[in-house]
Amino acid sequence: MAQYTPPLRDMQFVMHEVHGTIDALRELPPHAELNRELADQVLEEGGKFCAEVLFPINRSGDEEGCTYVGDGVVKTPKGFKEAWRQFKEGGWPTLTCAPEYGGQGLPHAVGMAFQEMMNSANQAWTMYPGLTHGAYDCLKAHGTDAQKALYLPRLVSGEWTGTMCLTEPHCGTDLGMLRSKAEPNPDGSFAITGTKIFISSGEHDMADNIVHLVLARLPDAPQGTKGISLFIVPKFVPNADGSLGARNGIRCGRIEEKMGIHGNATCEMNLLGATGWLVGEPSKGLNAMFVMMNAARIGVGMQSLGLMEVAYQNSLAYAKDRLQSRSLTGPKAPDRPADPIIVHPDVRRMLLTQKAYTEGARCFAYWLALQADVAESHPDADERRAAHDMLSLLTPIVKAFITDNAFLTTNLALQVYGGHGYIREWGMEQYVRDARINMIYEGTNTIQSLDLLGRKVLGDGGAKLRAFGKLVTDFVEEHGTNDDMAEFVNPLAELGDKFTKFSMELGMKGMGNADEVGAAAVDYLRVAGHLVMSYFWAKMAKVALDRVQADGDAVEPFYVAKLATARFYFAKLQPETAGLMRSARTGAATLMALEPELF
């Protein structure tokens, strides 16, 4: 009984009115001819595909799940293969890929918005093209010319799909413990042996071939992460002309029975002397794979943004329709037996929390996508470097902060439904189950927190953080004297000042005891997330305020709602940062004092 309508109005507000995305993109040579009409048309048509093709098979795909047929064969749920055919025929896999490999060459800023809608419609299905695009990015950056010519056009077209094979039964986060081996063959290929687990989209019936990117060790490679190499291991070994040759020695041993994303095949992949080809330099595989991993981390943030949006839409519709009790201040629907539950303050709290985190995440993520375009193709090297640094700093935040918020808000959406949310009929429980994995895979949110504080902030003495801080201070200085903006600017400025001191304090403590970084990191990332979100909510509030003041009584209600949501965010959500900083400052002592046997 769930429903989904692509949020085109808010997407266009963020892209065109807040970020000036099209004007910014037109400064980049590959996108000099881009215009708003084209971008809007792509999103409108993409929204139709998501709502009409992907969304109808979301619940059925969850209920049916993938099926392990035997002998390494996996069958996807009914409708998934047909949706893939329509996806290919519509040219959607090619959207942001390079024209030389058959892509349309559209910017990441447009592709990210389409990705959001796909995830709202069907996260499990969207993982198949998502991982394929990650494999494309990795091979485009590190593959040989011959590898690019053979694999990229077929990944771009959707004829073949891709995976990344990292995790092993004994090692997930700590890839330095990896055991898979790669033995050289006389023809320059390698025989790969090992077992990989939790491989999303590892086997399925939707595409002709699956291109696995596999981490393994060469003989005599050093131990630890410095001894890991990356290999292309296709399901079917392609001939020189791209036609499919022999079945390779990589097979699915089983699929996982898991909490959510049932429509995506999560596989154990066994490599028994599978033929593979080296990607990039020997023992530099992790560096190459990070191209795919970083893209995947942003992609996971978009998965959660998509889930937040669709869960909010449904809980809002339910709150307007469900009649229970009377308003505390008197009946609001006296002609009906009870008032709709949206009149109750706590239901409004739950709805506004969802709305604020969803719209704030959209503004943040779309800006980050624009930075990816700048980092890739700005004519000025300094601008490219600055955008790359911003991506590096903010990727763990977009992954962890948004996914944490998605689990919170999908739970709130379920709570709005009450008992009806807990049963399958209404569809809310699926969103909670699907949202939970996003906090775990592609690097747990704790790993993201350690990466942010330990590597991205303290690792360069705060240089990247200061660059983002300058965006905040510039905005505060520009609008700080505007009394009408005070309710947004003042809490942003205050949090910015406190966060700077907070970061320095943790850095000093960490120099004396590294456990202090580990103890504070999760709280720290959440405070950082609020700083980022406060900046983007203040920017959105400024645009909305200008329209309200300019248009008066004729203003579009959209802007009135945007201002009200901004006020809610700063009044009710941002203040949690005070408790988070207090918690982080208590340090590691209470965490590390208890001996393991006393737990």
Describe the structure.
The protein is an alpha+beta fold and 599 residues long. The chain contains 19 helices and eleven strands. The chain has helices at 8-18, 21-25, 36-54, 58-64, 80-89, 108-142, 145-157, 285-321, 345-377, 381-417, 419-422, 428-437, 445-457, 463-479, 486-512, 515-551, 557-573, 576-585, 589-592, and strands spanning 67-70, 73-75, 160-165, 181-184, 190-200, 209-217, 228-234, 236-238, 244-247, 250-255, 266-279. Strands 3, 4, 5, 6, 7, 10 and 11 form a seven-stranded mixed β-sheet that branches. The chain has a two-stranded antiparallel sheet with strand order 1-2. The chain has a two-stranded antiparallel sheet with strand order 8-9. A hairpin with a 5-residue loop joins strand 8 and strand 9 (244-247). Helix 15 (486-512) runs antiparallel to helix 16. The longest helix has 37 residues, at 285-321. It is globular. The model has no long low-confidence stretch (mean pLDDT 97).
